[in-house]
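The authors assume throughout that readers already know how a fold can be written as discrete tokens. Each protein is reduced to its one-letter sequence and a matching series of backbone shape codes. I therefore recommend that a typical entry be quoted early in the introduction. For illustration, here is how one protein appears when written out as sequence plus structure tokens:
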Amino acid sequence: MLRAVGSLLRLGRGLTVRCGPATRRSAQALPPRGLPCYSSGGAPSNSGPQGHGEIHRVPAQRRPSQFDKKILLWTGRFKSMEEIPPRIPPEMIVTARNKARVKACYIMIGLTIIACFAVIGSAKR
């Protein structure tokens, strides 16, 4: 979203460019308005507890259900139920569900084509 503020042009996500006939310099980025965004959802590294050293973030882990395990097997992520670890990242489950959804769509497309030929064949008799 573009918004002109005086001789400044604000370009969405906090990038601001000076605009005007007298200014022909390169774009100058100003700090964004509001709270800073962090990809992990946490606070910046310098605002944590002091004196305990460096904070290590552990990736989120999730215990898969029986249905999730079957999807992981069907999509080929693991070869057997014994290979599936007790906790896996949620991204792995989401990816496996997306692959299973695509496979199910391909199966339904194939069954629809077979059903169309069956209807055409029964109509000609």
Notes: Helices lie at 66-74, 90-124. Residues 23-27, 37-43 have pLDDT under 50 and may be disordered. Strands lie at 2-5, 8-11, 15-18. The chain has one domain: 4-123.
